[in-house]
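TL;DR need structure tokens for one chain.
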Amino acid sequence: MTIGNAPLVSILIRSMDRPTLDRAIASAVSQTWPNVEIVVVAACGSVHRALPTPQNGRDVRLIVRDRTLPRPEAANVALESARGDWLNFLDDDDELIPTHVETLMNARADARIVYSRAQVRDRDGKPTGFCGVPFFPSRFRYDTPTVPNAMMFQRSLVDEGARFDPDFAIYEDHDFFINLAARAPMRFVDAETCIWNAHDGESGLGHGVNSGIGRRGELSERIRTKWSAQFDAWDNTPGSLLQAGQALLTNGDIVAAHDALERALRQTPNDVNALNLCGMANLHNGNAERAEQLVAAALKHAPASAALRENLALIRERRAKAP
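>> reply
TL;DR here they are.
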């Protein structure tokens, strides 16, 4: 459904009927985009309270099943219930900034997936940083580039079969993002358009008390196993591993950066950037000897590089001070 030139956008909320739901709905209702519906799926089942509709002129629909729905199943019910041309998930403890939908819709051009940064807030509502990085496909092997409320995608991807995998009780968003990205490129908008209340929720994938899921390693390995062929295809795209590794290194994710850059170096063993970045990843990962070998090799290919000389001097200084 289109109003004027504004396609309908469905904001999809999986709800356990927590007190934060009202805040989430209010943020969806407040969108400046003129054509929005809010679809709330009662993941807690028939015990969910009724919701007033419309709210401030927005259509709010509550979808209730007769049982509790696991996170991926609730998400699939939301996908199947949405009427919009574009879809955007919003967890019931997170928020959208009023211009979120308008910003992404105006930036989409010919893209079918568009996403932004999310402001991260602590339990007291204080901003502590942001979540959201430019899209490098190989990065999906290690983490996801954003959070669900920051991403909008076209209904055509659902029509093609994109769904949440019920085998993932958590990490279902990461798995779904990969499913989307395997079908269409993702466009990044360098703006904070939503809020991730990382200390709220019960997924175990946030911050503070909402962290510490013991099965993260196992679930990450299951993601890698399921999507291994897709990851290999992305890794073979020229520059993808190098870009992902550099971004991970910049963000301080040393273990993932080290793995990505070693993979990149195996593809292009004489590439100066790969040698240098992999060397620095090794340094930060505790292997100063290999770091020196790699950066020294890079310097042989680019002897005039002052940056390489500085990196090599730093590595040798660290080695000299090591016990």
